[in-house]
Design brief:
heterodimer; A: mainly beta; five-stranded mixed sheet; four-stranded antiparallel sheet; about 0% helix; B: mainly beta; seven-stranded mixed sheet
Chain lengths: ~110, ~120
């Protein structure tokens, strides 16, 4: 699976949009971009994933560049409860096919008042 | 998404002893994964447990130290054997729900302290 690069930490004011970048310049054509987050003392939580197109769900939006070498996770209105470590992961997967996730160091997002 | 129950949630153990961690899923899944998260670190995959076959271990992890059982499609155990303080970590099990658009689901983890 391709390697990802994320900033070590970021701050965001509550109520503002949090934009978390991720570089994955060696991504292959069949690899998806996944985002997870880990709130302190809990197991990681799935947020969103995508292949080429931008994706949106109730938690966040995922913007993938046209060349797919980078992406941005957007939390539109960050709250204190969004304070967590956010992991960007790239892996090849097909529907119904399980495969392992390889975690990098992630971005520690601190949401402040 | 799948609901994963992991037990115990935490334990303090003496060095040289063993601890078995249980992971129960509310639906049948083909593969289950065991991770370790050392203090202040990211998650590291220990092994993949497939029902009906031997677990597949990642580099740096061996069966004698981390034996895994997978007796059916909803349950797995991870044993941490002959523990030392370096084994103090959070251990997490997970299942892959990618095919159902739910993503990868994790248990809440077992916080192990070895004294």
């Amino acid at each position: 699976d391709a390697k990802t690069t994320q900033p070590t930490s970021m701050d965001c004011a509550e109520g503002r949009a949090a934009n978390l970048p991720c570089n994955h310049s060696t991504i292959s054509g069949n690899e998806y971009v996944y985002w997870y987050r880990q709130i302190h003392s809990q197991g990681p939580q799935y947020i969103i994933h995508g292949l080429k197109n931008n994706e949106t769900n109730e938690m966040a939006s995922l913007i993938i560049t046209e060349d797919r070498k980078s992406s941005t996770l957007i939390l539109p209105h960050a709250t204190l409860r969004d304070t967590a470590v956010y992991y960007c992961i790239v892996r090849a997967t097909e529907a119904g096919t399980a495969s392992k996730l390889t975690f990098g160091t992630g971005t520690r997002l601190q949401v402040t008042l | 998404s799948a609901v994963i129950s992991q037990k115990p949630s935490r334990d303090i153990c003496q060095r040289g002893t063993s601890l078995t961690i249980q992971c129960q899923v509310d639906s049948q899944v083909t593969m289950m994964f065991w991770y370790r998260q050392q203090p202040g670190q990211s998650l590291t995959l220990i092994a993949t447990a497939n029902q009906g076959s031997e677990a597949t271990y990642e580099s740096g992890f061996v069966i004698d130290k981390f034996p895994i059982s997978r007796p059916n499609l909803t349950f797995s155990t991870l044993t941490v054997s002959n523990m030392s303080p370096e084994d103090s970590s959070i251990y997490l099990c997970s299942v892959d729900w990618t095919g159902r658009d739910y993503g990868y689901t994790f248990g809440s983890g077992t916080r192990l302290t070895v004294v």
